[in-house]
Structure prediction request, 789 residues.
Amino acid sequence: MVPVDHYLWLSLALFTIGVIGVLTRRNVIIILMSIELILNAVNINLVAFSHMFGNVDGQVFAIFIITDAAAEAAVGLGIILAFFRNRETLLADEMDMLKW
Amino acid sequence: MSPQPYFLDHIWLIPMFPLVTAAVMLFYGRRLSNQIVSWLCSGSVFISFIYSVGAFFQIVARPSGERIFTKILFEWIPAGTYHLLDGRIAKFVADWGFQIDPLSCVMVLVVTGVGFLIHVYSTGYMAHEGGYYRFFGYLNLFMFSMLMLVLANNLLLLFVGWEGVGTCSYLLIGFYFHKKSASDAGKKAFIVNRIGDAGFLLGIFLTSALLGTIRFVEIGPALTAGGFAIGDPRITAIALLFFVGATGKSAQIPLYVWLPDAMEGPTPVSALIHAATMVTAGVYMVTRTNAIYQLSPKAMGVVALVGAITALFAASMGVVQNDIKKVLAYSTVSQLGYMFLACGVGAFTAGIFHLMTHAFFKGLLFLAAGSVIHAVSGEQDMRKMGALSKKIPVTYWTMLIAALAIAGIFPFAGFISKDLILGKAYEKDALLWAIGYFTAGMTAFYMFRLIFMTFHGTSRVDHEVEHHIHESPKSMLVPLVILAALSFVGGWISWPEIFGGNSHFIHFLSSVVAVPHEARIEPVKGPGSEHGEIFLMILSEGLVILGILFAWFLYVKRTDLPQKIANSFGGFYKLVYNKYYVDQLYDALFVNRAKDLGLALGAFDRNVIDGLGVNGAGWLTRSISKVSMWWDTWIVDGSVRLGARIVWIFSYPIRLIQDGLVQSYMLLIVIGLIGFFGYYFYMARHAIH
Prediction:
């Protein structure tokens, strides 16, 4: 039986890698992948606590998040594709039109 | 209440028949064939004629004191009450009402009778002209207006007809509107008539303001009730204003200038409107309002003098004209002068009698002239005619009868009516008689000059026209023959008493002539005695025959003489030939001055109204708007932009954070979260301890 804090450490590690990835990588596709890491860190948290409390709600919630992540990937890749067609770039630091 | 006689009760239908066909012609005429147009238009006038004859017999059947019959359809202008000039209060009454009495009876018979014959004639004359339905539409509209004029029971309704005939006259003179001279002549007729109409209208206003009524039957009693003395200047004013209207419509000096030009219209129009009916409206109107004239010897004197001078003046111009229709036009002016002479000397019935006989023989003269023009392919210059009597015999004989009638040869119609007028004039004033007498001689001369130049002597017709000469169709000849018969016997209905007659016509009419309160006592017949009357007649016959012989001598026997005479009278001949330069005088005095006024007003409009007013206002608006725009740009907008600039400046540091990069936003979120959680945990730890 693995104690719950192991899971939490794993989750924290994944989350931190994800956040650093989002903040530092220039390619938007990598950023999108990093967001997936963050979401999965959350999933691990949910499943771990669900197991610990013997309540299945957390696992159901994790499945919703997986679904949501899939939808998000679809929409996100669509946006990236459309953006690439217009600007011919995938670098996040060149996407700076959304300002005053 | 016993039922009214049918034709008298339905007197209002007489003008309606031509009105209906006129409306049909003007709205649907284009789609109808010429034959249907002819039948409809002539037919409606013929029905009117039948109704007129019916009304005539029913009027004659009544006792002579009750021969005025009024039919009021409805009140036309309910204008309420008003103050008369002398302070009395009167109710203004203008009905759509019809009055039939011996006078309107005669007029209606003449208008519908001669009108019908001219309609029939027109079906032949206009057969090959364009706008056939338009011509007949106008003609029927004219018949309606003329019948309204003679049947109206009040001055205002008479004025409606008066203006209606003027309009139709304008339309028909300008019938060939693509010809500039024709449309100019139409305009001239219309404008000259407006001058007269202005006087007539003022006369109606004054009548209404002075007498409180405009109904003919009430004018006489109103004059008596108002206590107007003979020679009252207000009455004279009314009479003279009416006469101004009459000079316009009936082509008297000084407003006669439009009638000769009116010959631009088709010849049947000249016959119907400018000889037989419309131009006599002035004589009818003066006779209709004779109660007013009887009270004003001065106005009567003016009427007689203007009539006599016009008769002489126009006849002198007729002598030198070469256009066959122009001769007849001046002759018409001259004969109308006779009628006014008759009215002016108080012989209203004689004036109406001459009006009737004149309608016969002058209508005939014009129709015959039309037939001649028709025969020689549209030529109107008598110098290019001659020797036509054998080629168009019916036209020749009927025209000869008409010429004998107008010249006043015994016993043609013109003799009886003209000598009646001359006799009455002699009773009044020898000078008026002398003018009329001399004019009669000139009339005989110029009429037979026309006859001889057209039908006798050697042919001066162009060669290519020569072999086209042909007699007119039956539809034109039948009216000629009927009118010729009327020109011959038409005067006999008033056969003079000295020849054993009893002046039926004059007695029939006399009931409409008012007797002034201080009736002038005058001999009923000739000057002094029967012998005097006979003597006058022989005298005028002698002059007439002399005139005819003189014309024969000059234009058949010695055709070289007229030119020599013209040359020896050089200046005077030129003066008369150019119609005394009256047209030029009017042009110089009035027409060009009116044009100058128009130009001056136009310049005023352009420079002051448009220039100063409209353009000035535009310039002012633009200047003000420039100032306003400066204020808007720099002050109003400037203050707004200043505010924006201030906000912009102060917002600069904040704007630095919003760089549009998703990752920097994310970084801020993460820093915020770390800060938040750090603070949270820090506080939580300290709260525990």
About this structure: The interface with chain B takes residues 19, 22-24, 31, 92-93, 95-100 of chain A (CB under 8 Å).
